[in-house]
Amino acid sequence: MAILTAVIVVATLIAMTSGRVPAILALIIALLVAGIAGIATPAELFSGLSNGGVITIAAMLVIAKGVLATGVISRVTFRLLSGVRTSAQTLIRLIPPVGLISSLINTTPIVAMLIPATKELQQRSGIPARSVLLPVAHATTLAGSMTLIGTSSNLIIAGMAQEEGVRLSMFSFVPVAAPVALAGWIAIFVSSRYLLRGKARIKEKELRWRTEIPVSGKAVSVGRNAAELGIAKTVEYELIDVRRWGESVVLDSPIEEGDILVYQATEAGVRMLWTSPRFGLAPHHLFAVTVSSNDAGSIRDLQDDEDLLVVAAETAKRFRDTPLRPGATVFVSTSSREVLNNHPFVGLWQDAAGKAPQPGKTWIALGILTAVVVAASFGLAPVELIAGTGAAAMVVSGVLTPRSAVRALDWNILAIIAGSIGLGVMVIESGLGGYISGGIIELSSGSLPLMVAVIAIGTTLLTNFVTNAAAASILTPVAISIAHSMDLNPVLLLILIGTCISFTFLNPYSHQSNLMVMEPGNYTTTVFVKFGVPITLVGLATAFAVAWPMLAFWH
Question: Domain Citrate transporter-like: where (predicted)?
């Protein structure tokens, strides 16, 4: 059975690495073959569906969505980047706070929020996004490995270890992961100065869309002017008027409740303005609608329905002075799609942007996240129950709607994680884990430092060719087996593996954050390798220097 399992596992990993077969399909086929061959029971192979780690990951995705929905990450990022002049200053200001945040919530949505922020910084200050995105993405990956809930692989390791009687707490990973993260951040900062140099290419764009953004009393912009907030001018938009009670006021006047900020913008600029948390906009989606009416009138006539707001139109005139022409595209906001379906002037429509951020819910969302972290830290209940309660609280408190909470769940990733756990079950039940652990012990000749080096390097190589979940699922039972064979502390071996699994710096396809920044940063695979090698070597050296003495002490 061990040989057959090895063939199935290797074939599955090759299929997942090649990209020719969807990862979830490769995993399902592997589990079905293993079930038919009798390697494990169906209940065991598909136990990932009920695994506490998978449940926790799903709940944390909802909690992360709730925090991000308030726009707090965007606001904090803007303040951090205010006044920076170089990429070095940007990294020094961004990496520590973003690293802290990424140790508490999933790194992927954080990176997603940073992409538009770095683009805006490039337009405003000329600092190339290329010199910022990849370093910050790698920094968040390193920081995420410091806590139990910071990365999915740690949750998988903890879930599988608990079934073997080994318990990992909220901060079990800190002793190894924290020094590695600090050393890695230094390597990132130094390497970026030499390997990611370049100049921002800023092209002038035609600002053809008139955009009118109303300011509510809940807006964080009230009492400050547009220049202070960084919303006066970029490549994508430019403030041309501030309307107050129907009259124009000076552009640098402090913004007040009820003001309408008028911009000329690109189509992308319209979306950027809408998704900014600075205006306190209503929690409505932005829609691009096509006018169908032949009736004489103006763009303003679209607002006959009080539940519809015209946000932008392709014109240089006021909306009331712009004719309502059939076929014209207009951006509008409304709380209900039924308004668009029943509107006499609307032909076709489609979603243009999600709901505007809701700053008023910021403290509620942060309070829920803090409560989850504190409860998990003190072990007040199983972490999956704590995280699940936090996710439910995001909905009950109104931070998220039930539909938004469901949309926060990335079912493809959750299915891959659950399927990967099945691979770990196969390794355990077939006895393959024992053979692998025996091979590692024999390869290291019983030498503790050599064994630590083999595990660290092997984990790093595996995580760069397959998903983090697959690496964690395969290596967790192996580490526990080695710990029992050599009378070592299994927790220390597991946190070494959890830390090294974050070294996904050599392959852009090994981590979701890598893929997200690849196009915006204009990176190639060669750039990933050149930039990733020194960071990986520093991470490995630090992990070895920290883990070996700890294992020797507890031996």
Answer: 15-498
The answer to whether residue 345 sits within a structural domain is: yes
d(CA 375, CA 367): 12
Q: Which CATH number do you get for residue 320? A: 3.30.70.1450
192-214: b (≥16 Cβ within 10 Å) or e: beebbeeebeeeebebebbbbbb
DSSP assignment letter at 323: B
Helix axes 468-486, 432-443, angle to 10 degrees: 70
pLDDT band at residue 180 under the 50/70/90 scheme: very high
**Whole-angstrom Cα distance, residue 300 to residue 380?**
56
> What is the rounded CA–CA span in Å between residue 522 and residue 533?
19
Tokens of 529: 């390798």
Q: Do 468 and 153 form a contact (C-beta atoms < 8 A)?
A: yes
Q: How far is CA 388 from CA 70, 100, 103, 138, 270, in A?
A: 20, 22, 18, 28, 36
Phi, psi of 195 (to 5 degrees): -105, -15
**For residue 209, what is the enclosing H or E element?**
strand 209-214
Q: Rounded distance, CA 122 to CA 202, Å? A: 8
* Contacts of residue 416, Cβ cutoff 8 Å, sequence gap at least 6: 23, 24, 27, 467, 469
Distance in angstroms (rounded) separating the CA atoms of residues 171 and 141: 16
Average pLDDT over residues 203-227: 81
Model confidence pLDDT, tens digit, residues 90-118? 899 889 988 888 888 878 778 877 887 78
Quick one: how far is CA 113 from the chain centroid?
Answer: 8
> Residue 249: beta bridge partners?
242
**Contact status, residue 70 vs residue 112, Cβ threshold 8 Å:** no
Average pLDDT of the residues of the chain = 85
Query: What does the buried/exposed string (b/e) look like for 40-71 if buried means 16 or more CB atoms within 10 Å of the residue's CB?
Result: beeebbbbbeebbbbbbbbbbbbbbbbbbbbb
Residue 322: inside a domain: yes
Total number of domains in the chain: 1
Three-class SS of residue 243?
Answer: strand
Residue with tokens 């706070």: 97
CA 301 from chain centre, in angstroms, equals 40
- Inside any domain, residue 461: no
Q: What mean pLDDT comes out for the span 45-55? A: 83
Domain that holds residue 216: 209-359
- Answer yes or no: is 320 within a domain: yes
pTM across the whole model = 0.78
Secondary structure (DSSP) of 159-195: HHHHHTT----TTTTHHHHHHHHHHHHHHHHHHHHHH
Query: Under a CB-based contact definition with an 8 Å cutoff, are residues 140 and 107 in contact?
Result: yes
**Which tokens go with 114?**
């940073």
